[in-house]
Amino acid sequence: MVTRREVISWAGATGLLAMATRNGLAIDAAQETAAGWSKFQENPVLGGQYGTCFDIGVLYEEHKYRMWLSWRPKKSIAISESTDGIHWSAPEIVLGPNPESGWEDDINRPAVVHRGGKYHMWYTGQTWSPTPSEEGRENGHSVIGYATSLDGKTWVRESKSPVLASELRWEGVAIMCPDVHWDERNKQWRMWYSAGAQYEPNAVGHATSADGLHWVKDQLNPVLRPDPTHTWEQQRVAGIQVIPHGRWFYALYIGYSDIDHAQIGLARSTDGRQDWQRCAKNPIIRASGHGFDADACYKPYAVFVGGKWMLWYNGRNEHLEQIGLATNPREDLGFGG
């Protein structure tokens, strides 16, 4: 299935200017980012020797980054740890496939929250069909499962069945890429998820839950749709991370100009559901046309540590995806104001 190193200096990453050519297109490395973001000069920071590593979640705890990642060759979710967000330990599988369930032949795309003395993980379970889809890709179904852990490494599934699955027409055959937060004010979990086609979903939905198992979908769904007036996200949007920060809900998301080319955008909303304002400088992280993220930039995940944002994303060059890093010293995520 087609899926989607060491520090020299942060100043070097910011000031890098290079030219490369791919498929006859000259690309200026200084134009690969916008709104205050800079790609790390020595990208990628994880992948390569491990095969495709993609769609991650990160927590910063006790002066250490913990990354839960999708590990394509193992069809599993793995953990990797780092003290600086750049040098990562070898992936260690923490949750593997469970073909007997009928919906977990391949598991990936984790969302991890540490709350109430436990780690909570929502993840994507996938089955595949040999029948090609309309795009000529493999077809199948995706749903969302739920597991918990005391240490972030040993996980127990909380349900034998998916906790969220496709039901509505716009959701197509796949619900995947959960992003979950605890809403303390309303005492509920909030999930943003991607839904639509199996190969790449089409739009973003929202749901709420009191217990993490039983979810109520938002009547406004989908809450984030592609914007046909902007070529870079004209076909579909997916892979969202929503960040409650100050008075805003910021959204980092993938925008697709077509099925094989994607970049990263930024939007914000006062409630995380409607009236999304796109950043005028979108896309904020662009495919380079060369190197590990030549063809696409997928699934952003950012944390604010030490006065700057650290954002990891998976870049794709042909069939291989690896994890790269970008940073931003502006607390407003580069939106401006």
The CATH architecture can be named as 5 Propeller
The major β-sheet equals:
4 strands, antiparallel
Quote the average pLDDT.
Answer: 90
Strand content: over 45%
- Count of DSSP-assigned helices: 1
> What is the total number of structural domains?
1
Protein structure class: mainly beta
Approximately how much helix is present in the residues? under 10%
Shape field: globular
String of helices and strands:
HEEEEEEEEEEEEEEEEEEEEEE
Description:
This protein has one domain (10-328): Tachylectin-2, Chain A, CATH 2.115.10. It is built from 1 helix and 22 strands. Mean pLDDT is 90; it is low at 1-27. β8 and β9 form a beta hairpin. It is mainly beta. The strands form 6 sheets. It has a 4-stranded antiparallel β-sheet with strand order 3-22-21-20, with no helix packed on it. Strands 4-5-6-7 form a 4-stranded antiparallel β-sheet, with no helix packed on it. It is globular and about 45 Å long.
